[in-house]
């Protein structure tokens, strides 16, 4: 299983970014897929999840601004981030878990563990 994130960078407040996560060596369609973020000294936060049937859930901190989606044909997970704020600055990680119940817990339990993780992509929001 391999997850590789891309799309991070430096953006001004109010701007947008789209993160991508290419999943290889496994078919992620039956997995719970998620985006997490973490900054030094803070707990890892689950920001968005998408279930095998396409159901989504978001952390309160990003609701209405972030959208998680996936392209099953290409095995790519996306995170569209709009109206970005300085507090969105973090390393963003793509994660996958065989247990679909993870999609219930990932955005509510701090430091929630998943089966598989990417190495992350850095998002910096600054003027």
Describe the structure.
The chain is mostly beta strands and 127 residues long. Helix content is 3%, strand content 46%. The chain contains 1 helix and 11 strands. The strands form 2 sheets. Strands 2, 4, 5, 6, 9, 10 and 11 form a 7-stranded mixed sheet that branches. Strand 5 (45-50) and strand 6 (56-58) form a beta hairpin. It is globular and about 40 Å long. The model has no long low-confidence stretch (mean pLDDT 94).
* Percentage of residues in helical conformation: under 10%
What kind of oligomer do you see?
single chain
β-strand percent reads over 45%
What's the end-to-end separation, in Å? 37 Å
Structural class estimated from helices and strands: mainly beta
Largest sheet: 7 strands, mixed
The number of helical segments is 1
Q: List the helices and strands in order.
A: EEEEEEEEEHEE
> Runs with pLDDT <50, length 5+?
none
* Number of E-type strands: 11
- Radius of gyration (Å): 13 Å
Overall pLDDT score? 94
| Global morphology | globular
